[in-house]
Input
Amino acid sequence: MSKINAAITGIHAWVPEYILTNKELETIVDTSDEWIMSRTGVKERHILKGENQGTSVIGVHAVEGLLKKTNTSPDEVDLVICATVTPDMQFPATATIICDKVGIKNAFSYDLNAACSGFIYALDAGRRYIESGEYKKVVVIGADKMSSIVDYTDRTTCILFGDAGGAVLLEPTTEDLGIMDSKLYSDGMGRAHLHQKAGGSEKPASHETIDAREHYIYQEGQPVFKFAVTKMADVAVEIMEANNLTSDDIAYLVPHQANMRIINATARRMGLAKEKVMINIERYGNTTNGTIPMCLYEWAPKLKKGDVLVLAAFGGGFTWGSIYLKWAIDGKDI
Output
């Protein structure tokens, strides 16, 4: 019997309409466009505005577009995994809420939280269900409303994040395509440097935690940057070496869009020219679980069947990982 691989057979992404520019941020905190661009590469980011607008809104747009493009009925979907750090609520899972809103009734669903590495973790999890032979259509979502946990009085973090998301359809194939390998890691010591202090079971919400602004992103920039530069580059090179890939073999690096300096360092370690790196951080910022599917969505029309992609991410916790993927769709078929 031929080996079953999990291939991405469709992709869609969505961003909110409102754009928060660096110029507008200059009126909110003590910063400047030059300062932000030189340190992060972010020019603008999209923000989901309005009452009762959670991450599921982003996920619904992404999944509805995906199902339409792939001519997939909601009833055909077997499983939905949503990678997010900004769920609509503590429970039920945002994946379950998305399923309800788009009419997916025959699937089971759950959320996965691995910070900015979540989409890669979820993609690998979905791959395993497909490879088991029991599941035929798995939807993997990466979506976050980061504006909901950003402190817009903190000039070091509010400049980084935006809201966005995307979704892919995984289906089985016996061709030499799809997800070929993965390398996933975590180290819990990293939680000290990047976390949300309150709102969990260890430190439930109270007047004190709200007054202390502990429900927002807390980040110690230098330790996070140091680990991210090292680990994201290491794991990308590791997957190349494990699969005997050279820089010539790789069509594109698909990096998590956290910071231009981290992206550039990873590309250099892999021996890749800038033309072989998917970069859209300038227009969207760090959308956490939305960054990699957003890149894949924007570059999909120019990709060819069989193109070799390396996905790489680093996130709070710390978490990091990479995936070696052979693209399964011709750009003209997107």
Q: What stands out?
A: The mean pLDDT is 96. DSSP finds ten helices and 13 strands in the chain. The chain has two domains: 5-176, 180-333.
